[in-house]
Structures are given as C-alpha cells and as structure tokens.
Automatic annotation (TrEMBL):
SUPFAM superfamilies: Cupredoxins. Keywords: Signal. Gene3D superfamilies: Cupredoxins - blue copper proteins. Residues 1-34 form the signal peptide. The keyword Signal applies. It comes from Pseudoalteromonas luteoviolacea S4054. This is Methylamine utilization protein. It comes from the Bacteria. The lineage of its organism: Bacteria, Pseudomonadati, Pseudomonadota, Gammaproteobacteria, Alteromonadales.
Length: 230
C-alpha cells in the first residue's frame, strides 16, 4: 500500500513537471513567433508624421483574442476626448468614461457607427463597434471637442510616435498578400486610408512609408472657460 502511494506521488510530480515544461514551451514559442515590425511614416515633404495609424491586413493573419477582448476606453477629460485617436479591432467594445466634473453629450454621425450618449457624468456608457471605418466624435455641449475612433479589420495596428514610428508585432510565419494601411486625421477624405501591398518583408524588419497626399492641419481649439453644465 505504501509503495503504491509513493509511486502515485512520483507520477503526480512527474505529470506536474511535464505540464509545466509544456506550458513554458508554449509561452516561449508564442514569444518567439512574434516579430516586431517598425514602420516610419513620412509626409509628402519627407518629414516624419506623428499620430498616423498603421495596420496590417491579410486573410492569413490570425486574430489576437487579447486585442479583441481588451478594455478600450474613449474618455472625456479637461473638456477633450482622451485619447484623441483610438484604434480598435472590428467587434471591440469601447466605454466612454467621463473624468470631468461636468456633463458631456457624446455623439457621432459617421456612417460606420452613428450613436448618441445623452447628458451623463457618473455612469460610463459603452458600445460595440461592429463596422470598420472612421467614427468622428463630438460633444453636443462643447462644440470644440473632437475625437476619432478608427475601427480596423485587424488586430495588428499602432499609432506613430514622435519619430513617426509605429511598432507592430506580426507572426513569424510567412504571409502572402500582406496589405499595409495608413490613416491620418489630416487626410482630405477620412474614409480613404492609403495602402501598400507588401510581398516580402525586409530582413531589417523596418519599413518607410511616404504619404501620397498633403496633410491638412488639425482644427484649432475653440474652447472657452464657460459652459452651462458645470
């Protein structure tokens, strides 16, 4: 009896060790399969572009469950949308917390996702974004407030930083017909991103994309210190 119990304990420890080894291998494999790609976006004059959205599309790209289930937020703070530009994958849930001590009335007339959240402050609103496209946001009380939610058919996306660089992790496996899409709020037609087909990624894992069109300057801030909903 004691011998049987000892054998069972040994088998249990061995099974746990094998499971831990298998789990570690899976984690390492997932990490190894991720390949960061750096895309630098430049304008028509060759200057780096900040806050451009870059994403990759392909039927062979697997969807990231983590990106789909992420807690996306488009807040209102200091009478402005924060972040100014939010990128989400198609089907993502977005909440609209109000961090101000005043009321906001968030709306969008964009065909991709028209909606309206009437005066609210304490109860965060949320919405599922099931259509791709640009959703331009406004506040019915504070006319100067402007924000964007860009819904993309991909889970591989990023905004460019101050150096005009977007860093996106792609699977290590070969992918045919990879399309890179680029969008900026300065485009004349916000519903038409620029795109480029990439047959083979460079061994340096870095790309430079120069915009075909000139960019309009962002709208000025017309906010004031007074409103009727303090």
């Amino acid at each position: 009896m004691q011998l049987t119990q000892q054998v069972n304990k040994v088998n249990t420890k061995r099974a746990r060790w094998q499971y831990g080894l298998m789990l570690s291998t899976c984690l390492v494999s997932s990490w190894v399969l991720a390949k960061p790609i750096t895309v630098q976006v430049k304008d028509a004059e060759g200057k780096v572009v900040k806050d451009a959205v870059v994403w990759f599309e392909s039927a062979q790209l697997p969807r990231s469950a983590n990106k789909l289930q992420q807690a996306y937020k488009m807040g209102q703070k200091d009478r402005a949308f924060t972040p100014h530009i939010l990128v989400v994958p198609k089907g993502a849930e977005v909440s609209f917390p109000n961090y101000d001590s005043i009321l906001h009335h968030v709306y969008s007339f964009s065909p991709a996702q028209p909606f309206e959240f009437k005066l609210y402050r304490d109860s965060p609103q949320s919405l599922n974004f099931g259509n791709t496209g640009v959703v331009e946001l406004g506040c019915n009380i504070h006319d100067w407030m402007l924000g964007y939610i860009l819904v993309v058919d991909s889970t591989y996306f990023a905004l460019t930083n101050g150096q005009g660089e977007a860093i996106i992790e792609l699977p290590e496996t070969p992918i045919d017909n990879l399309t890179m899409q680029v969008w900026h709020e300065g485009f004349a037609n916000l519903d038409k991103p620029e795109s480029q087909t990439i047959k083979v990624l460079p061994t340096s894992n870095s790309l430079i994309y120069q915009l075909d069109q000139s960019l309009f300057k962002p709208k000025e801030d017309f906010s004031d210190e007074f409103d009727d909903y303090e």
